[in-house]
Design brief:
It is built from ten helices and two strands, in the order E-H-H-H-H-H-H-H-H-H-H-E. It has about 250 residues and is mostly helical.
Length: about 250
């Protein structure tokens, strides 16, 4: 299913909100599974929002890609910002999964996984393997194997954190402007924030990303979202149903 605009979304359903809360009949560790499921649901939404924002940005794509102008600079900077957030969210998701062995093998979560389609279960298992750095000689897995390290470094050095300790800011900047010069450095000046922009700052991220790809095998990280999207959604739906929730169709309030 494609990424839709904000007003284009499926029919509205409700369910009992208590399905994500442990009850008196649950084991003591059921709360951990519930928390894990809420985390997966939040990550699904965050990745969906980024994809929707990316669609909106692409509707204002420069007429002449590759040309040096303010429009192209704004567009490029916003697309790099989306990538930074994407790397950060995916890194957090993989980190939580790699530390949640007890939850992944919990009877409740295993019951949820049994309800997945074959395709969703295979893609979920591949994501688990990538998150845990499991070594496999499978072509489809191998092309995504470098993703965890790529997300880790982007998140830690130029996305969620502004790393000043390892020279990554300067290295990214130098790689873009000095090591393999691509352009002069640009800024937009004005009296208000809407008019101002240090375009050169976005080049820190682009330059650092290029450096990483010299050390880490390239991987189609955007394609990986499509791999992850479907199993995450099936897991969310299945959990609600396993916990006794039923979906009731609702009518939008006007």
């Amino acid at each position: 299913m494609g990424i839709l605009r904000v007003h284009e979304i499926g029919d509205l359903y409700s369910f009992d909100a208590n399905v994500f809360l442990p009850n008196d009949k649950d084991n003591s560790d059921t709360a951990d599974v519930c928390s894990f499921m809420l985390m997966l649901s939040l990550a699904y939404n965050d990745l969906k929002y980024l994809s929707q924002i990316n669609v909106c940005i692409n509707e204002d794509k420069p007429i002449s890609p590759g040309k040096c102008n303010r429009h192209a600079g704004q567009y490029s900077g916003m697309t790099w910002y989306i990538r930074k957030l994407w790397f950060s969210i995916l890194r957090e998701l993989m980190e939580n999964i790699s530390k949640s062995e007890a939850i992944l093998s919990h009877p409740l979560f295993e019951e949820v996984l049994r309800k997945l389609s074959k395709e969703a279960r295979e893609k979920w298992n591949m994501f688990i393997d990538v998150s845990k750095n499991v070594q496999k000689n499978i072509p489809e897995y191998d092309k995504y194997k470098p993703l965890k390290e790529l997300c880790e470094r982007m998140r830690n050095h130029v996305a969620s954190h502004y790393d000043l300790n390892h020279g990554n800011m300067i290295n990214g900047y130098k790689n873009h402007f000095i090591s393999q010069p691509k352009s002069r450095a640009y800024i937009s000046r004005g009296d208000a924030m809407a008019e101002r922009k240090p375009f050169f700052a976005d080049c820190i991220v682009a330059g650092y990303f290029e450096l990483l790809l010299k050390k880490i095998e390239d991987t189609d990280y955007q394609e990986f979202y499509k791999v992850l999207n479907h199993p995450l959604w099936e897991i969310i739906e299945a959990f609600i149903q396993v916990r006794g929730g039923s979906f009731r169709k609702e009518i939008d309030e006007i």
